[in-house]
Amino acid sequence: MEPSVDPSELQPLGEYDFEKNFSHLAARKWMEENWQKTFIFSTIYLILIFGIQHFMKERRPFNLRAPLALWSFSLTLFSIIAAWRIWKQMAFLLLNKGFKRSVCSRSFYVHPVSKLWMYLFALSKLVEMGDTVFIVLRKKKLIFLHWYHHLVTTIMSWYSYKIMAAGLAWNAALNLCIHSVVYSYYTVTAMGFRVPKPIMMLITISQIVQMALFLVLNIIGFSWNNDKECQTSWPVLIISFFFYITLLALFYDFFRKTYWSSTKKSKQN
To answer: Is 149 a catalytic residue?
Structure first.
């Protein structure tokens, strides 16, 4: 069933032909038929990464600097463009309709500017699982936070797009902005440049802030779920609530162990 959208939320905002011609109805139909495959993809993902990790145990790490730089730069470029297009509709709603409509509106799924990028955002979560392949092939440390984050995000994003959940646009807008920075960092480091520690700390802090904001938006979703125009599936609200809490705790723990512990050790030495 197509969600009702206020026509005043669909005003032209300088869309391109390839955006306008994108069929959100076909995209949603495809997602309705295929979102369950994320469970299969997730199983393959886990088998693959831990299988490669076991295979690489007695082998020398691959360098992969050039492919990693190209991979990270491609995701940086996508994140910047998608963030720009989704924020265009987000800014319009914030300025003309207010914060509540920016959270509750389903216009992001059908607006000529944002509809393509909302779909690509959901699909990109599957593509981003490729980050982990580079980690295990290069024999870098694979932490629980990394693969857990990729796995659950993919399932949640596909299902949320399938039901055209309220609030996913804010998730996409914030996440794409953070990923623009994160993948820029990956690109620079893959090219062999050293990034100053304060900048690395700021990137992790921005990820912690992102999770805190997602949690706030989730709590807002609970309080507005009785509103007919702002309803979201209860399973999505409950599962995402616990997901964001665990991610917030995991990112905080990563920051504490990576930066606070090392700072204390350097002071003691």
So the answer is: yes
User: What does pLDDT average to over the chain?
Assistant: 93
Task: Examine residue 4 and state whether it is found in any structural domain, yes or no.
Answer: no
Percent of the chain with pLDDT over 70: 96
Listed range (17-31, 129-143, 188-202, 251-265) with the worst mean pLDDT: 251-265
C-alpha span between 229 and 72 (Å, rounded): 38
Domain that holds residue 79: 27-268
Virtual CA dihedral for 71, 253, 82, 161, nearest 10 degrees? 110
How large is the angle between the packed helices 24-34 and 144-162, nearest 10 degrees? 120
Both tokens of residue 73? 């730069």
Q: CA dihedral in degrees (100, 83, 242, 101; nearest 10)?
A: 10
Domain membership of residue 56 (yes or no) is yes
pLDDT higher at 232 or 125: 125
Q: Are 243 and 156 in contact (CB under 8 A)?
A: yes
Q: Is position 156 within any domain?
A: yes
Radius of gyration of the chain (CA): 20
Residue 228 pLDDT grade (very low, low, confident, very high; cuts 50, 70, 90): confident
pLDDT higher than threshold 60 for residue 263: no
* 1 inside domain: no
What local confidence, expressed as pLDDT, does residue 1 receive? 52
- As a whole number of angstroms, the distance between CA 131 and CA 129 comes to 5
**Secondary structure class of 36 (helix, strand, coil):** coil
Name the domain count of the chain: 1
Task: Tell how far CA 236 is from the center of its chain.
Answer: 16
- Choose, from 24, 111, 149, 150, the residue flagged as catalytic: 149
Asked whether 241 and 214 are in contact (CB, 8 A), the reply is: no
